Structures are given as structure tokens and as C-alpha cells.
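hi! just following up on the protien thing from before. the input was this:
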Amino acid sequence: MRFVGHLDFQAMQQAMFLRAGFKIVIGEGPSHRLRLKTSPPTPVGVESRCEFTYLMLSEQVYPEEAERRLNEQCPDGIEVVNVQDAGHLAKKNPFGTIEATSYTVRFGEEAGHSEIDKAVDALREIRDQPAPDEIDRDVVRKFWGRILDVDLSNGRPELLALQKEGETFHAARCADYLEETLDLPHYPIFRKLDYYRLTPSKRRLFAIR
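and the predicted 3d structure came back as:
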């Protein structure tokens, strides 16, 4: 599923919702679109466990029932892990408070400690570099200055990166850079984990119960 583009993923979701029998409210504008919002697009090549979709329904469906009906319609590679009643968000953009995203990176079973350490050092160098060299500007411009933190405490690189309009960290470009620069045995796969709000304090959003 990480090779499916955002628009195709949205179309697949709409098909799932309709096949599950959800009565989604239709907008009153000329396009008559279904009233749903999705979390920010994930680049092709990046895994994700935090894709969120907000639906406005014309009739109540209990979360447990909604989760069961949706999972019956899920294609391979997709699972609905949690459904919650978000009625209090009806007049708001539920994704407007997203400021950062956390990721983990895996390099395949053949990658040893030395490769992982080199990758962490490279990510920290990108984080700490005051400005990219002219030669590297086009290569790193999609992720330079957007990595906020890099951690290796769980044995696998984890990082926190910006997720704002005009400043979003491009994980797929960073994976290309790491593979080319470090000569890794496998293409590094970034996995999006959670969304955060940075101000006034770092707080994880959309907790799964």
C-alpha cells in the first residue's frame, strides 16, 4: 500500500465507506462532494500507521460496528485499527493543529549496527547543519531544516519532523539521500507513526484508544 498515491488512496477509502453502508453527508456546493476530511498526504514509498479520516454521517453508527463493517471492506495492506465518535469536531478542521510527525526507519535484516549508526549520524548532521552547501541544496531542500529530533533508544532510528504547509519533511526524498550517500544494503523505509502539536508543548494528537 505504500506505493499507492494519495488520490488513489482517497478513492479507495470512499469506496470502502460506501460499501460499508455509511450514509455520508453530501456537501451543498456545486460539486456535491462527500463530507469527509483526510490527514495530510503521505508520500509514495512511505509506510504509515496514522492515516486518519473524518466522516460526517447523516445517521449514528456505533464505533465498534463501524470498525467491523469497514474491516470487512479493507483490501490487503489496509486495516482500520480504531473508530471514534468525533462529533465535537463537526465545525472544525480536525487536522488543522498538526505541526509535526514522528517516523521510524528500517533498513532490512542485513543492515548491521554500523549501517544504522551511520544513518543516525547522517540524520543528525542534517538536523544540525546550519545551511546546506550549494552542491547539495537541490538534494536536501525537501528535508533540510525540518528534522527536529533523532533518537536511537529503541534500537531503530526514530525522528520527529515538521508537518506544516511549506515546511513538511519529505521522508521519501530523505530515504533516497540516505541510500545514495551511505550505500546501504536495503532501501530505507520510513514509517509515519503519529502526529504532534508542538505549541504550547509537544502533544501527540489523535490517540488510539
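The chain has two domains: 6-89, 100-204.
Residues 125 and 144 are 10 Å apart (CA to CA).
cheers
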